[in-house]
# Entry
Amino acid sequence: MTAGPRPFWPPLAAGLALGLALLLTFVITGHGLGASGFVTRLAAQISAWLAPEATLANAYFGPFVKAGAVLASWITWEVIGVLIGAYLGARSAGRSSVQIEKGPNVSRGQRLAYAFAGGALVGFGARLARGCTSGLGLSGGATLAVAGFVFLAGFFIAGFLVSMLARRVWQ
Amino acid sequence: MSIPFYDGGVASGLLAGVLFGYVLEAAGFGSARKLTGQFSLKDFAVFKVMFTAVLVAAVGLYLLRVGGVIAGNAVFVPTLFFWAIAAGGMLIGAGFALGGYCPGTSIVGLASGRIDALVFVAGMVGGTAVFAYGFEPMTGFYFAAKGPDAQRLPDLLGLPEWQILAGLIVIAILGFRLGSRLERARGGPFTAEDVCVPGDAAGAKNNPTPSTQAGYVS
# Structure
């Protein structure tokens, strides 16, 4: 294979396609797309494997465990679908590449430490906000929910502020 | 048969997910550098794709409602808890700028081979566990400043929905034009050739990769 990766879709085309996929999801399910709900269930399940009694007693994880089959939920199937769809897209367009993606001025170890720290902030923040960029920003925004726009304002304000401090991670 | 179908089954989840993942990957959202290029104003794909998608779905839902296909309260609308949602949004923005992804895009990054995305997912699981085990003292903050149930912008602003949609479309057009101007001034946006080469070829935008090198992408 000598050809380079196929170009990304133009933002307007990708936005149109994403909007139609979101609209279809609303028509089929009555709600939008999400992602962090799966992470919550995964964390609750891992916690239940490691510390069954503490998880059952926990005010936040407990109800998930009591309901049984923590991972058996629409959002789990949706995230498995995301993995499949993104994998098929990346492979077929020559854009699949096994790498630690980083800016040129940080080491791989530093990049992975930033990835973990950023992930931890996002995991905590998504539970506090009751959703993430997909569930609140995209899906909430599409219903014109006030909650969605408050979320998006916070997301972009903090993103720009922290980006100034974290510039060396990427540049 | 009424619409929406309220189908929460396996096929429904897989279908929605496959479409979601395929489009996010095609938009370039499996790449942490392309995603964070939004916050250095070099790449406006996050703003452009999200804003377009929100408007397409919002106009679609409006037309389905006006056309009598769905009822006014047919789809789920999240309720505002001001402080928790503002603070949570800020933490996600901060974590995105630092770690390179949000929850959905980290799954896309993982599926396109990014090892940093896998570590990001592990971080999210850790952050979620910290939240769960620190939840009880936070409940006051978590429920503070609750808005009306399922409140929407037309309710808050007292304007008809079509005027809100028209206003958002104007903001989107202005944002697109400003964004494209900033992208050109800063040498962006990131292309697939810039970010889909493996390993240490990362950073190609600052140090252009010869086309032969871009050719060994699997």
